[in-house]
Design goal:
Length: about 260
């Protein structure tokens, strides 16, 4: 089974075949969604909240991102694995950005990296690409751009600036654009103009070249799902709770349980 490549994603855009992106932060989830046929697995800094229990994604360290990306990379056999560059891993200077991007490729085995950037970081993107590391540019309303603003999804963006960002980041060598917090109309117009695949996050509509689903909230793999269902798929958390409760009841009742060689 060959791994999805940048050429494959470009072909999908040309053929108007939707690109599917989902997130994973560990081996098990990556292996499962890879089997489902997703094209790209993003090891996002959102793993800081969903997998590591941080209050904010910006608390995630570079070392933590490497660990999560290494684990997810072992599970993905077909999907392209993209490792997220966490807060302050590329903002200091281009040399440090290249070094940290290199860690996600060399140590973690990712095939590409993602940066939350605007046109002011076009030079940084170009430096990473020059080093031979493909870059997905995440633009629009992003978590890092809204530090301290609460729910970044509610923020408005300067659509003219987004246009400028898109053009500059493509010129800098980005192989894909992840668009979040922009209007569906703008997402469609950017998709029609740029030569690289666009991926829609929240708000960017259904007419981009692909869609991203943050796996944990998408499938309901979150404790909040136990009290009120929010997910469109799942909820996986409820099934897990039911299974764990049944196992607990059987053990406490002295019933025989199916054992596996894995015991801890």
């Amino acid at each position: 089974m060959s791994r999805v490549s940048i050429v494959d994603l470009q072909r999908m855009k040309a053929e108007k075949k939707k690109i599917v992106v989902m997130t994973a932060y560990d081996y098990t989830v990556a292996r499962i969604i890879d089997r489902a046929g997703v094209d790209v697995i993003l090891v996002g800094d959102s793993g800081g909240r969903f997998a590591l229990g941080h209050e904010d994604s910006n608390e995630v360290t570079m070392d933590e991102m490497v660990i999560m990306a290494r684990a997810a990379g072992r599970g993905a056999k077909r999907a392209m694995v993209v490792g997220d560059m966490p807060f302050m891993s590329y903002q200091v200077n281009d040399e440090e950005a290249v070094r940290n991007a290199g860690r996600l490729v060399q140590e973690a085995g990712a095939q590409a990296v993602k940066l939350e950037v605007g046109s002011e970081y076009a030079g940084t993107v170009a430096a990473i690409v020059k080093a031979g590391i493909p870059v997905m540019a995440h633009m629009g309303s992003t978590p890092m751009a809204n530090i301290g603003a609460g729910d970044f999804r509610s923020g408005s963006v300067d659509e003219e600036q987004v246009w400028r960002d898109a053009r500059e980041l493509v010129r800098a060598g980005s192989f894909s654009l992840l668009l979040t917090g922009i209007s569906a109309d703008l997402g469609e117009r950017i998709t029609e103009e740029v030569t690289v695949p666009t991926i829609a996050g929240f708000g960017a509509g259904d007419n981009c070249d692909g869609q991203i689903g943050v796996t944990h909230p998408t499938v309901g793999l979150h404790p909040d799902e136990l009290d009120r269902r929010k997910s469109n798929y799942g909820p996986v958390a409820v099934a897990l709770l039911d299974a764990a409760e049944k196992f607990t009841q059987d053990v406490r009742a002295g019933k025989p349980v199916r054992s596996r060689r894995d015991s801890g």
